[in-house]
Amino acid sequence: MIIGKTMFLDIGMGVLTAIAVTKLFLMPLTWSFIAAGIVFSLLVDIDFIFHLGKQGGTRNAHKHRDLLHYPLLSIPFGIIILLPYSAAWAVLFAICFLFHFIHDSIGIGWGIQWLYPLRKNHYAFFYRYEPPHGRKPPKQTFYSWKHEDIDRLDRYYGDQKWIQNIYLKWHPYAIIEFLVFVFALIVLYYFFI
Question: Phi and psi for 125 in degrees, rounded to 5?
């Protein structure tokens, strides 16, 4: 199985968040807490697996963000579930989800619905992915797209070979994301020697 480079960022952030939360709560760093940080960082995208089986496969993969990518709903829900068990686990969950949402709002993709259920608009920042077919989206610092426009935008600007072009090629985002992962492993090594 090929692990997408952007998954390296999520894994690295999960590890770094677990380390930071253990320091914040003055608790020992355990492998189970590190694993939870990684799982929480990747959990938001679990619906992507189910989406791949649907008609259209990776072509309409942006639609996987229509299930769990709602910060105003998912983060409080996770905190409510985990807080009775442990405040540290609830904080770990909240920060990992928040980092994932920020990651999904910068660079590639169509952003997420940060204000759902209050607003359905998708918000993204610094969108710079340029698909190889030549149609380049406008370059701005902040984007707000209406939910009903996402399919149209994806048809016009989208990249049908996005897995190949984003996950299987090196580009500036991939390099930064991989460096975060390596940094997390170095920090983790430091804590366990």
Answer: -130, 140
